[in-house]
Design brief:
The chain is 37% helix and 18% strand. The chain has helices spanning 2-29, 42-55, 78-89, 119-135, 150-158, and strands at 60-66, 92-98, 105-112, 139-143, 180-184, 194-198, 207-209. A hairpin with a 6-residue loop joins strand 2 (92-98) and strand 3 (105-112). Helix 2 (42-55) crosses helix 5 (150-158). The longest helix is centred in the N-terminal third of the chain and has 28 residues, at 2-29. InterPro entries: DUF2726, UCP028063_topo_Znf. This is DUF2726 domain-containing protein. It comes from Vibrio ouci.
């Protein structure tokens, strides 16, 4: 009698495992996906290119990094820890610059895209300021103009990352975000003058006066 009972139990368990396995497979077959496209929009990509150029070999640039990947609450009480952790769980840093060897975050960067701030964005910025001050992480506020002013962006970073030094100006195309190169006009009324041209020519024909002066920031 016991042997019959054992056989029945084995069959039930086997049926349960098989059913569960095939149900999971069926659920997966019913799900399909598609790529959402680039992780960054055009403005964000242009700034990312400028930031990587400014950092060079002295750091690793990461984008849209969740706060909980960088920070953890100091609260010792379990309830307070969960409250503090939930407060940052859905927020992120626009960009972070990490140590190239350890990937420890050195600087956090918030990008102002020039659009009017909603209440949600204002609250998020207040949170970023608080957590960075609490954790001792430098927070740099930048705007979209820095996508075309790498030398100025490098100066901002140099205040927090010793190895970064200001050097010759590097610019990126305002039309496609590609690096720009310096050329000298060989003919015409501007012969002999330097100017910036997109490195993707002839596919992108954007050019810029070498001596263009950007607005100074307050």
């Amino acid at each position: 009698m016991e042997s019959v009972f054992i056989v029945v139990v084995i069959l039930v368990v086997f049926f349960f495992v098989v059913q569960k396995r095939y149900l999971k497979q069926d659920e997966l077959k019913d799900s399909s996906y598609k790529k959402k496209g680039p992780l960054l929009n055009g403005q964000e990509s242009a700034f990312y290119n400028a930031l990587t150029a400014a950092v060079g070999q002295h750091g690793v640039v990461m984008t849209k990094v969740n706060l909980t990947s960088v920070l953890t609450p100091l609260a010792t009480d379990k309830k307070q820890w969960f409250i503090a952790n939930n407060r940052i769980a859905k927020s992120y840093f626009d960009y972070v610059v990490c140590d190239p060897r350890t990937l420890e975050v050195r600087v956090a960067i918030e990008l102002d895209n020039g659009k009017e701030l909603s209440k949600g964005k204002v609250d998020r910025q207040k949170l970023l300021i608080h957590v960075c001050k609490s954790a001792g992480i430098p927070l740099i506020g930048t705007n979209i103009k820095h996508s075309y002013q790498v030398s100025r962006l490098r100066r901002l970073l140099a205040a927090h990352i010793d190895l970064i030094e200001s050097d010759k100006e590097v610019r990126f195309c305002k039309r496609c975000g590609s690096p720009m190169t310096i050329k000298v006009a060989s003919q015409g009324e501007h012969k002999g003058r330097r100017f910036f041209t997109c490195s993707r020519q002839p596919h992108c024909t954007y050019t810029e006066n070498y001596n263009v002066v950007f607005e100074e920031e307050g």
